[in-house]
Amino acid sequence: MSKSIFYHAGCSVCVSAEHDIVNLIGSDNLEIVNIGEIRGRIEEAERAGVESVPALVTPNGNVLHINFGASMKDVRG
Amino acid sequence: MSKSIFYHAGCSVCVSAEHDIVNLIGSDNLEIVNIGEIRGRIEEAERAGVESVPALVTPNGNVLHINFGASMKDVRG
Lengths: 77, 77
Known about the structure:
Two copies of one chain form a homodimer.
Chain A: E1 4-8, H1 12-25, E2 30-34, H2 42-48, E3 52-57, E4 63-71, H3 72-76
Parallel strand pairs in A: 1-2
Antiparallel strand pairs in A: 1-3, 3-4
Protein name (chains A, B): Thioredoxin family protein
């Protein structure tokens, strides 16, 4: 199975959700990307359909927006 | 490990999220509750901190609100 990708921007809501997701699906099944730091991947996240972070993109390409930390507009700054 | 509880209300957003969550964490680790039908559990969900559905309450009691289907106010009707 390919990995899910968890996009976040380092905010407290994101960190809390990250811990929960790691506990639930396991770090082996997860790539974690801080798009606040790795800004070159913002566009990739947006193309995947990420509208806010934290968000989980599943192996089949669905986007689960989890709670609400920041909009992509805010991440772009 | 105790199970996570996935609360939903039968809406299309909920059904889509349910499939993704089942694929990610496995149906064995999940109790699925349709509070649109089992209305006696609305109060339990609200006490757990669920503000909208679909939502996942993790074994340690954190609430992950996933995408957005309906507010608890709408579920109560």
